[in-house]
Amino acid sequence: MTPEQVTLVEQTFAEVAPVAAEAAEAFYGRLFEVAPAVQPLFPGDMTEQRRKLMASLAFVVRGLSDLPSILPAASALAKRHVEYRVKPEHYPVVGEALLWTLARALGPRWTPQVASAWTAAYTTLSDVMIEAAYAPPHAAE
């Protein structure tokens, strides 16, 4: 990601943060609409799950300017997601739901540049997470 993209993500997330509860609700609504097969991965009350989503996003956004600082936490999160039956093919649909949610939350402030920055951020993190969780271990030499 470029420094400009990091700044755009930080700035626009700051605009979404005040409506975090509504954004998280919209995100899961969209996710379950476009990928109903993932809904059983989220049993029970979604209140805590929505809070965790927004806390994770805040953590990632704060760490984008020093990506290596957040990679261990992202890797650990990815490995926990395997235990929850998350599969690599779920990541793109989650990304689509996230971008859709941000576009609705930001309205006219969702520009092509902002969309590109968020896409880069999500792609960067999801690639790291997929690699951490699903790549075969490297054999010792």
Features:
Globin-like; 0% strand; 6 helices; 141 residues; mainly alpha
Protein architecture, described:
The structure is a single chain. The protein is mainly alpha-helical and 141 residues long. The chain has a single domain, classed as Globin-like (Orthogonal Bundle). The chain is built from 6 helices and no strands. It is globular and about 40 Å long. The termini are far apart.
CATH topology: Globin-like
Largest sheet: none
Helical coverage, percent range: over 70%
What is the count of β-strands? Answer: 0
Helical stretch tally: 6
Spell out the CATH superfamily: Globins
Average per-residue pLDDT, rounded, comes to 92
Question: What's the helix-strand series?
Answer: HHHHHH
Assembly form of the protein: single chain
User: What percent strand?
Assistant: under 5%
Question: What CATH architecture label applies?
Answer: Orthogonal Bundle
Name of the top-level CATH class: Mainly Alpha
Q: How many domains comprise the coordinates? A: 1
